[in-house]
Amino acid sequence: MKDNFSDASGDYAKFRPTYPGELFRFIESQLSQTGAAWDCATGNGQVAGELSKFFDRVEATDISKEQLKNAVQKQNVTYSLQRAEQTDFPDNTFDLITVGQAVHWFDFNQFYREAKRVLKPGGLIVLIGYSLFKSNPETEAVILHFYKNIIDTYWDPERRYLDEHYKTIPFPFQEIETPDFQQKYIWTFNQLAGYLKTWSAVKHYKKEHGQNPVDLILPDLKQAFGEEGEVIFPILFRLGKVV
Description:
The chain is an alpha/beta fold. It has helices spanning 9-15, 21-29, 46-51, 65-69, 108-118, 137-150, 160-163, 189-196, 200-209, 214-225, and strands at residues 36-40, 57-62, 77-81, 94-100, 119-130, 174-176, 182-188, 228-241.
């Protein structure tokens, strides 16, 4: 698993989008037990915090010490520094495993082997994420130019799984049909710019050129987006059961 986010964990916690409450209510409706959940690659703990509302116990893991320092603190959430592909959890521990905006960085075979080991029979696994957001047409045009013509070659190869909406990721579980979800925001221009600066390709570009590529589009983006506007993240969502 790659770690592209330790060096800006504070910005990640501040600017990255969350997931809609309806998504977690749907997950809860599919569970037969709510004893223990594992939020894998928890980052700042946003998903773990939501799970803590209906699980007795949540184990949340990440490979980034810096991310865990910024994690949401809940009484029934325990954080630990562990790889997705190898943990110290006993067999048949969890009723649910969640992975938010991270599974594309994993070694799929190793992670799924570990997931099947620690899930209880009939336990669920959830992959969630988001790819490019939607906004007004002028803003989308600026972002698409930035995405395809400025930072395109700086994305890690794994980024394609997000562009393909997680549909091409191996998923060796009994898949359960899910509804479509999206997360809407009214963001200020500074929030939008702050979010773009958390992109991994932006960090790779900055490392190579010594300049933040977001700065190259700020005038055009400001003209297109204005002081504030609507930002919509279509949610990527796959749900499966161990059989």
